[in-house]
Amino acid sequence: MGQVVHTKGTAVAASSGTAAPGQYLTFTLGGEMFGVGILNVKEIIEFGSITEIPMMPVFIRGVINLRGAVVPVIDLAARFGGKVTEVGRRTCIVIIEVPDEETRHDIGVIVDAVSEVLEIPGSEIEPPPSFGARIRAEFIQGMGKVAGKFVILLDIARVLSVEEIAMLTGVESAAGEVAPAAGGG
User: Fold this and answer.
1) Could you tell me the pTM of the whole model?
2) Which terminus of the chain, N or C, has fewer Cβ atoms within 10 Å?
3) Does residue 178 belong to any structural domain of this protein?
4) The CATH number of the domain where 70 resides is what?
């Protein structure tokens, strides 16, 4: 029946018939509807106090304390090159579990408002556009067609790539420059 096809580090299920429907948590961001696979979503929390971290890129808003764990919070609108999200009444933080080689990381993302969980059949998902979207094409897993409108389905492993975010923040380069070794003499 179905087989797994590996494309550029991601596994995609291929089947002879129509693909099984996927469930996606949908949310709005800058007036557009986005979706992430429901299996990546750990929880949704109301927007609260975020501890800012100095000298971080604008899209890293800071960290929150989630039941004793330090969780970084990313502003998706700013990550996509837009303006920083203005906090409103429906603004919330979606806690997403991001796989990384041998571990999993919890990362919070700020969204304007969470909409609903939609089941989108594989036959209703188009490939990402090569141009025209306001975000990088590799961030888009596909374009889901729902009630005559498109939902941008995000490839969360790429949007929240731990390696890329670390590189953008300069964490890796700064780690090598912590302190020069003292000469023993």
Assistant:
1) 0.75
2) C
3) no
4) 2.40.50.180
